[in-house]
């Protein structure tokens, strides 16, 4: 490997890290360095931007330790057979970069992943050493997110949780068949075993914290994972089912979805074109339906097309579900329980909460509901309100064109 200076390494390894979508800084414990103690903070608002649920923007240094790898996963730009320029940081260089960027107020934390070099254990040792040095040698109190390696020794993965706020173990692909075909050197069983061990450690440490103040914290922001969308033949229904299983079995904070992107010198087993980015967006919306709107996984999957298993791209999955199950509507805004109001297209969690609070004191009209939603046109066919009953709308067979967003609002966020 040619000798590269720090700027050249940073350019290569920051660019290589962009394919990892599971970059979040929410949910951790609060730490700060006010009063002259320590360095860094997990608070405040803030190169990579991650967004917390309350809308805060957190700036993280997002890099790979190295983009060299002994594995040859077909979908990965950094695979062993890929013809890309390689670079590698030492653990000390990553520590120095993190502190330097923090002192310049560029970042509030670190997101660190890596290709596999020498062995899984060796690479995991280097990742842990970065986090250990930041915490113990420099008293760094900012956010740290480590990507862990499931094939590494469980004790090394456990050490990552002692120093990092959040850990990630990527399942990579939604199906075992897809993983076997596109990443034959990786084991779905070992990945899930590592996630299970991490869940157990998080639960045990949280329980110990309740009883003993001196108990060490362990991954206070939990664990997350990422699935690549569109590299294999998995349908949206398959992906939703896999995500629900991961949430239920391993207590994940987030499942991230990353649309497959064609890479140079790609393997012949990969698709020639990337999937629409809107597909990735619809999967995130489906994820929110399960996490915040009380939809069961089978209900979300039911919003997909029966023949293809794919969610529609022109409308969101909540609207698709409502159009498919018209017999569940309209619901009475003044009488319906929370779970039914959450199914109404156009009504978010906050809007439903406001409705439930307001109707304790008076009956609500359609105009009242309109103040709580962006598109009253989407809401009208699915609600009964004081002075409003959608008799004609509710019976229309061609309802979809009336409630679907205009075509220009459905453009992909980042067109090719």
UniProtKB/TrEMBL annotation:
Cofactor: [4Fe-4S] cluster
Superkingdom of source: Bacteria
InterPro entries, alphabetized: Aldolase_TIM (IPR013785), DNA_rSAM_put (IPR023874), Endo/Exo/Phosphatase_dom_1 (IPR051675), rSAM (IPR007197), rSAM_sf (IPR058240), RuvA_2-like (IPR010994)
Keyword Calcium included in the entry's annotation: no
Keywords associated with the record: Iron, Iron-sulfur, Metal-binding, S-adenosyl-L-methionine
Signal peptide coordinates: none
Ligase is among the record's keywords: no
Region (Disordered): 22-42
PANTHER family the UniProt entry points to: ENDONUCLEASE/EXONUCLEASE/PHOSPHATASE FAMILY DOMAIN-CONTAINING PROTEIN 1 (PTHR21180), TYPE II SECRETION SYSTEM PROTEIN K (PTHR21180:SF9)
Protein name: DNA modification/repair radical SAM protein
Species classification: Bacteria, Pseudomonadati, Pseudomonadota, Alphaproteobacteria, Sphingomonadales
């Amino acid at each position: 490997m040619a000798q590269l200076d720090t700027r050249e390494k940073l350019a290569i390894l920051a660019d290589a890290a962009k394919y990892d979508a599971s970059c979040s800084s929410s949910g951790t414990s609060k730490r700060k360095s006010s009063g002259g103690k320590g360095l860094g903070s997990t608070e405040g608002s803030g190169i990579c931007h991650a967004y917390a649920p309350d809308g805060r923007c957190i700036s993280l240094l997002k890099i790979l330790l190295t983009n060299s790898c002994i594995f040859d996963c077909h979908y990965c730009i950094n695979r062993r057979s890929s013809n890309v320029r390689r670079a590698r940081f030492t653990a000390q260089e990553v520590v120095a970069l993190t502190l330097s960027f923090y002192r310049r107020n560029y970042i509030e934390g670190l997101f660190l992943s890596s290709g596999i070099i020498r062995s899984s254990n060796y690479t995991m040792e280097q990742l842990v050493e970065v986090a250990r040095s930041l915490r113990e040698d420099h008293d760094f109190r900012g956010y740290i997110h480590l990507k862990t390696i499931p094939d590494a020794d469980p004790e090394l993965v456990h050490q990552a949780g002692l120093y990092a706020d959040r850990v990630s173990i990527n399942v990579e692909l939604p199906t075992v068949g897809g993983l076997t075909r596109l990443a034959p050197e990786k084991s779905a069983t070992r990945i899930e075993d590592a996630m299970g061990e991490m869940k157990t450690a998080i639960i045990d440490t949280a329980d110990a914290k309740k009883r003993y103040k001196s108990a060490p914290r362990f991954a206070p922001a939990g664990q997350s994972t990422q699935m690549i969308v569109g590299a294999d033949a998995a349908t949206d229904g398959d992906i939703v089912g896999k995500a629900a299983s991961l949430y239920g079995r391993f207590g994940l904070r987030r499942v991230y979805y990353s649309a497959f992107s064609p890479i140079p010198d790609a393997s012949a087993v990969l698709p020639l074109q990337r999937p629409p980015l809107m597909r990735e967006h619809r999967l995130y919306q489906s994820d929110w339906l399960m996490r915040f709107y009380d939809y069961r996984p089978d209900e979300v999957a039911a919003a997909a097309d029966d023949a293809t298993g794919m969610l529609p791209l022109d409308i969101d999955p909540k609207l698709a579900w409502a159009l498919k199950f018209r017999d569940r509507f309209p619901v009475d805004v003044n009488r319906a329980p929370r779970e039914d109001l959450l199914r109404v297209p156009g009504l978010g969690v906050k809007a439903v909460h406001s409705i439930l609070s307001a109707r304790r004191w008076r009956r609500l009209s359609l105009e009242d509901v309109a103040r709580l939603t962006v598109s009253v046109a989407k809401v009208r066919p699915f609600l009964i309100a004081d002075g409003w009953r959608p008799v004609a709308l509710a019976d229309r067979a061609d309802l979809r064109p009336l409630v679907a967003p205009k075509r220009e609002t459905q453009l992909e966020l980042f067109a090719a």
